[in-house]
Amino acid sequence: MSEVLSKNVKSMKKDLFESPDFYQIDDLLTEEHKLVRSSIRDFVKKEISPYIEDWCQKAHFPYEIVKKFGEVGAFGPQLPTEYGGGGMDYIAYGLAMQEIERGDSGMRSTASVQGSLVMYPIYKFGSEEQRKKYLPKLGSGEMLGCFGLTEPDHGSNPSGMTTNFVDKGDHYLLNGAKMWISNSPKADIAVVWAKNEAGRIHGLIVERGMEGFSTPETHGKWSLRASTTGELVFDNVKVPKENLLPGKSGLGAPMMCLDSARYGISWGALGAAMDCYDSARRYAIERIQFDKPIASFQLIQKKLAEMLTEITKAQLVTWRLGKLMNEGKATTAQISLAKRNNVAMALEIAREARQIHGGMGITGEYPIMRHMMNLESVVTYEGTHDIHLLILGNEITGIPAFK
Ligand code: TGC
Ligand code: FAD
Questions:
Q1: Using one digit for the tens of pLDDT, what is the confidence trace for 130-140?
Q2: pLDDT digit string (tens) for 83-126?
Q3: Among 160, 343, 344, 384, which one has the highest count of C-beta atoms within 10 angstroms of its own C-beta?
Q4: What residues have CB less than 8 Å from 32, skipping those under 6 apart?
Q5: For residues 71 and 239, is the Cβ–Cβ distance under 8 A?
Q6: Where are the domains of the chain?
């Protein structure tokens, strides 16, 4: 560790986080759920909180966290153990995402992309050979993956993608480019969505080292600075035929992955909101102005009371959605409601918490500004705030307003 880094780490405030549970939602959790939550919370306090501010200030992706995430079971806790997962349910998965994003949204990105957008499609649509080849290594953190759907000219409308592959007999020839891809600069493999000659979307596993495949990093982000983001460029890449995911084609395949990841984000955003609320509550009690704790002023109490109200509502929505996920009954629109509501709620709480912290709220002494800036990405990726509104509008009216 560099001298500057270790000095910063030593000066870092202790992570004092305590989660709010105003409606005793713990009573709805199993012992296994609580165990997952406490083990990931301890992990975050030890492996992320002391360093995250420094990583973000330096826009540094801590690659060593990948192996550690694998060891603590953060990759695919909801997938079967024989395929590298944790063999648990969707509420356990949600709680893991909540705790990691409580630490930092960029760290949760690393974990949720690996679990929901790389392991899930290989598990769900992959051949048995593909599952055996990749999943154990992805689950253990020996390998890092990324998910390529978005293109420079096709973000909210992925069905317009132009990345394509042509059947060359003994291999496919892949051309095109993806943009805004989490994990891409360090990924060993990419699950890439591309059109065949008939215009049908398929998933392909592209491995680092394949000729013509590059992953330039995207610099200058003000958000998710501890997460690495980049492009995927395919210049006549020869992809072996056995790397095509055989189980499903069409836009529905990546959309199913997004259902799982968006669900995880709804829990993750809750974690960021809880951290902002917890920090604001503590700061308000400690900070004296006009000879009193600022917590004694009604305007501050209003902010805190509204934060707790919104967190409690979101906790109930995510828990119920988790039960529906476990039963295989959750719909895309239900997931959209939770992702959209919880991210917007977390962003609003981060802004209010920033005000409660006064000037200190803009510094790295407190996690608030970092959460706020991170959430500006979370509100856009995995379907923007407005796209989720339109998914709900479609559900309510039966009329798609996208086009
Ligand atoms: P549409 O006509 O509605 O549907 C096309 C086909 O797809 C099927 N489908 C689904 N199937 C299963 N599950 C779902 N959830 C499905 N959603 C759609 C649908 O049935 C249809 O099938 P078929 O057989 O009839 O052809 O599609 P559309 O082109 O009108 O688009 C709809 C829209 C706009 C809602 C959708 O494209 C969308 O959600 N856009 C947002 C794009 C997005 O979310 N991108 C995310 C990229 S990945 C990312 O951001 C990762 S960040 C990770 C991190 O760092 O944490
Ligand atoms: P656009 O689609 O151009 O949207 C711009 C604006 O127009 C938005 O406000 C949107 O709501 C609005 N808009 C668009 N269409 C409509 C409409 N029909 N009606 C009303 N309003 C509309 N993608 C991946 O594939 N893999 C990843 O790992 C990944 N990681 C990401 C990491 C980060 C940090 C970021 C920022 C993005 C990431 N993305 C990833 C891409 C992300 O999913 C897209 O940014 C997102 O889907 C929006 O696409 P866009 O940025 O092209 O915006």
A1: 999 999 999 99
A2: 999 999 999 999 999 999 999 999 999 999 999 999 999 999 99
A3: 343
A4: 88, 92
A5: no
A6: 17-140, 145-243, 252-397
Q: How far is ligand 1, taken at its centre, from the CA of residue 17, in Å?
A: 36
* pLDDT tens-digit series, residues 280-304: 999 999 999 999 999 999 999 999 9
CATH architecture of the domain formed by 252-397: Up-down Bundle (1.20)
d(CA 276, CA 69): 24
Cα(71)–Cα(139) distance, integer angstroms: 9
Is 318's pLDDT higher than 80?
A: yes
User: Cα-atom radius of gyration of the chain, to the nearest Å?
Assistant: 21
Q: Is 155 in the pocket of ligand 2 (CB under 6 A)?
A: yes
Q: Which ligand is nearest to the CA of 105?
A: 1
Please, what is the Cα angle at 104 between 276 and 265, to 5 degrees?
90
Yes or no: domain 17-140 corresponds to CATH 3.40.190.10: no
The sign of the dihedral angle between the CA atoms of 20, 98, 282, 357 is: negative
Architecture of domain 145-243: Beta Barrel (2.40)
Residue from 109, 124, 255, 334 to probe ligand 1 pocket by mutation (most atoms less than 8 Å from CB): 255
Residue whose structure tokens are 């992320």 = 48
Q: Residue-wise over 177-207: b if at least 16 C-beta within 10 A, else e?
A: bbbbbbbbbbbbbbbbbbbbeeeebbbbbbb
